[in-house]
Amino acid sequence: MAKLQVCPIPDDPNSYAEAFKLCTRTKNLAAGQRLHSLFAQSQHCGNIYVCNMIVEMYSKCGSLENARKVFESLACPNVFSWNIIVSAYAQHGHMLEAELLFQRMPRRDLVSWVVMVVAYSREGSCKSAKEKFDKMPERDFIAWVALISVYAACGQLHEAVTLFNLMPERNLVAWNAMLQAYSQNSDIAGVKLTFDSMPQRDVVSWTTMAAAYAREGQVDKAAVVFDGMPERNVVSWNAMLAAYSSQEDDPESGDMTQVRELFDAMPEKNLVSWTSLIAAYARYGHVGKARKAFDAMPETCVAAWNALIQAYVRVGEVETAVRVFESMPQQDMVSWNAMIAAHSQHGDMTRAKDLFDRAPRRNLRTWNTMITAYAREGNIREAEALLDKMPEQDVVTRSSMVGMYADAGDLRAARRAFDSMPLRNRVAWNVLVQAYSQAGDVVAAKALFDEMPEKDVVTWNALLAGHAHNGDLDTARELLLQEMPVRDVISWNFVIQAYAQSEQGEEALQLVRAMDMEGFQGDRVTLVSALEACASVRLVSQGRIVLSSFGDAYGSELVTGDTVVSNAVISMYGKSSHLMEARATFDRMPERDVVSWSALIAANAHNGQGAAAVEVFSAMGVEGIIPDQVTMLSVLFSCSHGGLLDKGMRYFMGLASDYGISHSSEHYHCMLDVLGRAGRSKDARELLLTMPFLPGGVAWTTLLANELNSDQRRSPSLP
């Protein structure tokens, strides 16, 4: 634009128009404003063609207010003028104003209608896009493709396919739109079938096919497609870069080798390439390298700024993300949504709501982010208030409300929200099936399960968990081994864990072996459940085999460095009377939590080492670890079986005052046993009668058993 500042502008409309187009392409607002001042003083200032270029220049350079001023100053705006200003508001996300301008138009052409259909499609407003499409006096392929795209984006794949089949003629753009529709909805079979059926393909077709495989985690197949492409462009390379960047390999390992090698091998890089690299570094937690890549960019874009924000948010540096956000030359809805999500995910709903209120515009994602955040926090009132104000709801919104009511335990409200959904996705179905299962209503869960048009492994797992958690282990096992079409590690874990926690260790271990034979590699949950199973049947040797097997698969760090696993090992050794191994495991732990200390106390208590258990408890206090209810149960059990009456009474009396723990019925049962074993039957009976709970069978049995033992000890021996 330097030439515009030093060279005189030829005084003719075409030269002005070309100059304004150059300002638009380079987004040079300052030069455009200077040029506008020159044009306003020229004899051509009323030329409608040039004026339209000025409106478009201001719009594309982000100055919507100036675009509107120029438009309103036009004596006789033509249909092109109206299309430009409507498109300007639509592209900036001001759909209400775009709609009002569209309604004011004295005459509309095909472009006018297409602008609105595309705009609503871009916003994800499926209903509004369809309404405009249906009212169009004539349609071109752009309108058809736009509506196909919006159906796909809203998860309505069936409607997208129906629309595609209704098209009077299909060109390559339409075929590519269907490829993208199947890909967006994770229907890889549909992508492959469409790709194979295409009468011709271009680089977009091949790239979409590769990206579809990548999106489903099939990076090897994506690479085969990429290698077989007859031609590649920078978009193709970017698709593979994104594929390697989003692999489901453990991001904590920080392996960026493939991503960096591919980036360095690219014959051409654009802003998307650099942004993908920054996003990859962000995913792997390399915030320093993400910043370095950002600083190395030849030029930046709003997407790159957004990727940098995500990098800081991912590692918990929200305040740094705020500073990046505030320093952005221009923010878009993604920027605002990212910061709203960052604050809400870190529990700062005040700042999230402040950003939501200040956002210059909002789309469905903005509203859904806030509603989902309130739902996650259990703040039903605020979520419902936002829902009432929401201009348009989608399946994500309504699914969030189903989940919110379900999490709050209000199954009736969850069912009402579910039944009111005009369209339901699998998330909504799965949430409700899971809610019924967790509430113990397996019958309702099964009835809903049977109604589902499509089921995935999450659906089956929800039903499986319902049977497992409600003690119907035989049905759960039958579902797992005989009925489920697809199983994952979570499926196996539900049933293995249920058997282990039900003290049916042999059955749990049989399932662990079956899981291994089917080629599934267990995870930490599997290992802990297997150790619990070994503990329940006192099979220490089997437990050692399990530990060795998992150590070989995952490395010794999982076995020796994981607190949860070590806690399970201590418990296994303790229940199997291997106190030395339990203590050795405890001593080797790099970090210990309250469960670790409680497990060691319980190990000593259950092996008749009451005094040692109390010593461990004292050491726990010295370390500053606050006991919980389970800890105190083990301590009272230790006092009971170790004859430590005074300590037992002191711990029991100090539960609330010293440790902030409410007395439970189990604590009273332990104290009854402490008093009874110490021969204090009268005190034990008085405690039972003054319990803040109605004494149950356990309490009376404990009392009567100790009284009987006390009587026997007092009775004279027979000659």
Quick take:
This protein is mostly helical and 719 residues long. It is 73% helix and 0% strand.
Polypeptide structure, described:
- The chain is mainly α and 719 residues long.
- Among the domains are: 256-317, no CATH class; 612-709.
- It is 73% helix and 0% strand.
- The chain has 46 helices and no strands.
- Helix 23 (349-358) packs antiparallel against helix 24.
- Residues 1-8, 248-254 and 712-719 have low confidence and may be disordered.
- Poorly predicted runs of 5 or more residues: 1-8, 248-254, 712-719
The helix tally amounts to 46
Strand content: under 5%
Rg: 34 Å
Which whole number gives the mean pLDDT? Answer: 84
Number of strands: 0
Structural class: mainly alpha
Largest sheet: none
This entry's quaternary arrangement is single chain
Shape: elongated
Cα end-to-end separation: 119 Å
The percent range for helix content is: over 70%
